[in-house]
Design a protein that fits this description.
5 strands, 176 residues, mainly alpha, 3-stranded antiparallel sheet, two-stranded antiparallel ribbon
């Protein structure tokens, strides 16, 4: 009985997340400002530098690291990240993390940039704060998922990197 309801919930989440991903794919980043494409555009027609990753599952069983308690949305992801950051003495504020997330991915945890110099070099920026794999791996914080698309792990690793490079994510006001 429990497995059947879990399967039903996973299917519903997959459908919901596909709709959300399609909507978010209609956003593009242009010169640091967000601009929405026409409402009738589909992701195939959208000219977006940041798009949902096709190979990343939109929903996963709770047993996988990708399905964290951070499935509650941007507010919950940032709050959970701030809790982890406090335990590891990583500076950052809610407002500055959110500001950087909105600039980098518009809040799309599955965002991937396939058009910048990192992508051309074979390491595209991924997740909420658009972290490349070498940076994510170098600044990953123990106790968080090793999946760069995991919202909390992505936020914490990016904030850890920003702390080492700029003193804090609060000091980051543009692409970093």
């Amino acid at each position: 009985m429990f497995r059947a309801s879990l399967r039903t919930n996973v299917r519903a989440n997959v459908r919901r997340n596909r709709v959300i991903a399609g909507t978010l794919a209609g956003l593009c980043v242009a010169g640091g400002a967000l601009a929405a494409t026409a409402a009738h555009s589909t992701p195939a027609h959208a000219t977006s530098a940041v798009r949902p990753a096709a190979d990343v599952p939109k929903a996963a069983p709770a047993s996988l690291p990708y399905a964290t308690p951070a499935s509650g949305g941007l507010h919950a992801w940032i709050d959970e990240a701030l809790t982890v950051m406090a335990r590891h003495h990583i500076p950052g504020s809610y407002a500055d993390i959110k500001r950087n997330i909105m600039r980098e991915s518009s809040g799309n945890r599955d965002a991937i940039n396939e058009t910048d110099s990192n992508a051309a070099a074979g390491t595209p920026s991924k997740g909420l704060l658009q972290v490349i794999a070498p940076t994510f791996n170098a600044y990953h914080v123990a106790g968080t998922s090793k999946n760069p698309y995991d919202p909390v792990a992505n936020i914490v690793a990016a904030c850890n990197y920003a702390a080492h490079r700029y003193g804090s994510i609060n000091n980051v006001h543009g692409p970093y």
